[in-house]
Amino acid sequence: MSLDQQTVTEALKQVIDPNTGKDFVAGRSIRNLSVQGGEVRFDVELGYPAKSQHDPIRALLSEAVAKLPGVERVAVTVSSKVVAHAVQQGVKLLPGVRNIIAVASGKGGVGKSTTAVNLALALSAEGARVGLLDADIYGPSQPQMLGIGDQRPVSEDGKTMTPLQAFGLQAMSIGFLIDPDTPMVWRGPMATQALNQMLKDTAWDDLDYLVIDMPPGTGDIQLTLSQSVPVTGAVIVTTPQDIALLDARKGVKMFEKVGVPILGVVENMSIHICSKCGHEEHIFGQGGGEKMCADFKVPFLGALPLDIQIRTEADSGAPTVVADPDGRIASIYKQIARKVAVRIAERSKDMTHKFPNIVFKSA
Ligand SMILES: Nc1ncnc2c1ncn2[C@@H]1O[C@H](COP(=O)(O)OP(=O)(O)OP(=O)(O)O)[C@@H](O)[C@H]1O
Known about the structure:
This protein is of the alpha/beta class. It has two domains: about 5-80, 2-Layer Sandwich (GMP Synthetase, Chain A, domain 3), CATH 3.30.300.130; about 95-345, Rossmann fold. About 35% of the residues lie in helices and about 20% in strands. It has eleven helices and 13 strands. Strands 6-7-5-8-4-9-10-13 form an eight-stranded mixed β-sheet, sandwiched between helices. A three-stranded mixed β-sheet has the order 1-2-3, covered by helices on one side. Strands 11-12 form a two-stranded antiparallel ribbon. Strand 6 and strand 7 form a beta hairpin. The site of adenosine-5'-triphosphate has 21 residues, from helix 3 and helix 9. Homodimer. Keywords: ATP-binding, Hydrolase, Iron, Iron-sulfur, Metal-binding, Nucleotide-binding.
């Protein structure tokens, strides 16, 4: 059998992308394939950020091609390119932002903000350009978790605010704009307006993903936000106990009602491992998140332990993904981030510019 593009393509079809579960040809990631004599060259363009995976993926693909008879040299480049994906019908994309991920919870205090910041940092660690908008007007905690609570955003053009920078993230929070010691009383329309303004009047700079830490709950404010903000998909955070899961179910339903796809569910405070004796205990119950995902047919993204490290690092202004980037907990957040990014990449591309089909039916 002579060495040609088809033979190489067939060999590449046998290699499964460990992140998507699909082969690289079906995933349309292979570009510029050329075969000249015994030299094979091609580029791989992933639709999700995966800096940590570029080398292993290059090795997997090179190995598969190098085995073919007649191959003397294989040259592969691997890169990632995140594009904009579809949002709710009738809602316009935001300038400077390709994809918005809403992190929500049905109930307060389940660890939504901690998950949002670590998810944003994990996406950034994989090479994406990431922003974090703290829309949790009732308890804005991102300024403290990012260690920039004493900073204030400025406006260079008198029209838009420049987001603050922390650990490579572009960040904006209502907490930067109000006195943290004087809590505001937000009524529905006021809160929605403030959030829409923060979203639209911030000069987001070329973001692959904007992670929004949503206000907890499934009331009017959350519903209005999920209708008006151009969301690519939502991540629901829950703890494993019944009451939190019940509220998380409401969250899933709310997003589905307004046409926002659920990227998946994160179970937080899933298991407690005693730091003294190593005993494992399911303080808030076991398996609830996975069961809920099976019921609703949405992906289970992963489970974080109830671990004092997560709290102390977030409280001290350096969340776990940056405080202990190679640790066990950071690797769980990174796995979750990869699943989220892959789910987004699998969604259809931005269609907001397309005119909807109008079908005339005779009576
Ligand atoms: N897996 C975890 N292990 C230990 N502590 C955690 C974990 N997740 C979150 N925490 C801690 O629990 C507290 C509440 O977390 P967080 O603020 O993220 O919750 P939330 O759902 O955003 O709350 P709210 O509804 O008030 O916005 C914080 O002190 C945080 O550090």
